[in-house]
Amino acid sequence: MKILIFEYITGGGFNKQELPDSLKSEGILMLQALLDNFSVIAGIELVVMLDWRMTGTINMKGINTVVISPEDTVSDEFIRSARQCDAVWPIAPEFDFILQTLCQTVESLGKRVLASPATAVAIAGNKFKTYQHLSRNNIPAIPTRLLEDVFYSQGEWMIKPVDGAGCADSYLITGQEDFAAIARQLDQKDRFIIQPHIQGEKISLSCLFKQGQGWLLCANLQKFNIINKQYHLDGIVVNHHYGLSLYQDVIDKVAKALPDLWGYAGIDLIVTADQIGVLEINPRLTTSFAGIYAALGINVAELVLRLLEGEPVINPVCNREIIIKIKQNNHAM
């Protein structure tokens, strides 16, 4: 099988502008981990798109590399490379419909997407649509409304883009003045949501999905700092042990509610003493993926390929916590 891997940030998505350091560092982590997974799988030929500034940063030994220069049109190069492959594994942020468009493009070419299809991304990639969909299916989710539909009421709130990646452009609101200031500076209020700021553990689930079934790989603890009333991801404890059976129940419900989810996906939760609330669903590789092999000895790429023929067989060969440190920034994928 010949597979195109396109990690948007390191693969040329920003070839005509400066690379955002925060997204770049996490993109490198995910891409290198995925290449490491594939390096021990027989019968696979990889093609990897790579931003011209990334050459020498990632170990590409023995891999067909398509270097994207500032003069290239990345969408044209993506289509050209995808046509030469049997399958495509896209890794991209949801904002500006980037991930959804990539999936639609691969599907239109008649190639296999080694991730969720565009139909699933259209819901999971939009935090408001995700909340509506989960609520209709009686799945506890953090209450979410469009910013343009609300006035400030007492309490602490989070304002964030409806399709943002992680903490990018998210704001903690602690009073009327905060709300008014943020509301004034945001031009497109219909592109932002507001949620109650709930104190609790921020847990991300690394999962596999196929046709209404879901499998938990591990639960991860996300550690944040709040700087100038914005969350900044500081690190992730991959394979954090806590409430695994409860998490599997959430995964089962999400899988049934979104049967189009396929392959690896992440579910972000806020866990309190009283409840587990779904914050968002990431229909793609997440930063936590980069620590799974070291934590459990599980080859996620191999499991995803097994989904093409049947169900995954998940057999951890070790069981330890792995800490991924994140450069202080406004992003987390």
From TrEMBL:
Keywords: ATP-binding, Nucleotide-binding
GO molecular function per UniProt: ATP binding; metal ion binding
Ranges of residues in domain ATP-grasp: 128-309
Keyword hit for Protein biosynthesis: no
SUPFAM superfamilies, per the entry: Glutathione synthetase ATP-binding domain-like
Record organism: Candidatus Methylobacter favarea
The protein's name: Putative ATP-grasp superfamily ATP-dependent carboligase
Keyword Nucleotide-binding tagged: yes
UniProt xrefs under InterPro entries: ATP-grasp, ATP-grasp_PylC-type, MfnD, MfnD_preATP-grasp
Domain of life from the UniProt record: Bacteria
